[in-house]
Amino acid sequence: MDDNRVGNVGLWQTVVTPENVSKVSAIVQQNPRNTVRRIASVTGLKRSSTQKILRNSLRMFPYKIQSHRAIPIKAVRQRFDFANEIDDTMIDNEGFDVGCIWFTDKAHFYLNGFVNKQNSRFWCSENPHLCEEKPLYSPKITAWVAVCSRCIIGPFFMRETTSSERHITILEQFVSTQLALEDRLRIEWFIQDGSRPHRTEKVFRSLDDLGIE
């Protein structure tokens, strides 16, 4: 009997050996940002074998790195001072109502229906090579909300770019809604981000006129 499959004779040899696991582990510890392709190239293993070692033997998962805005030291000090001021105010003033601290923020919602590719997947047996186009400048709407521990006021919407005049209009809507509440929650503190349209002389004057500190 002639068997030409000489290379397949015998038991299948696994590459998931303690030695290879140690090699892969050492490379990952040296640089956790290495790709599977790079690790496989350094160790001389196949990508599939490298993937198997990472997932099954080392129990590792390729987590997505998040990015956050860098905060300068000056801003950290300002936040620390603000926290101390709030703390002192609450301690020194027995009538201070923490539930009447209002936090405000705004968010943009795009109207073209485009989904962030990081949150969208297409399941298929083969790569469909899909490509979706998105416009350079997408229409959007801005939503503004004020929140305290007892209720939410808003959202109020803007279709145009945020400006000091439009922000004042939002503030007026907020105050009129706040005054219409049944229990009429006070505004002990009013906190907003430091973007330029929020910090103009017109806005500060409007805050004074509306009785917002």
Automatic annotation (TrEMBL):
PANTHER family: HTH PSQ-TYPE DOMAIN-CONTAINING PROTEIN (PTHR47326:SF1), TRANSPOSABLE ELEMENT TC3 TRANSPOSASE-LIKE PROTEIN (PTHR47326)
GO terms for MF: nucleic acid binding
Stated name of the protein: Tc1-like transposase DDE domain-containing protein
InterPro entries referenced in this protein's UniProt entry, alphabetically: RNaseH_sf
Domain of life: Eukaryota
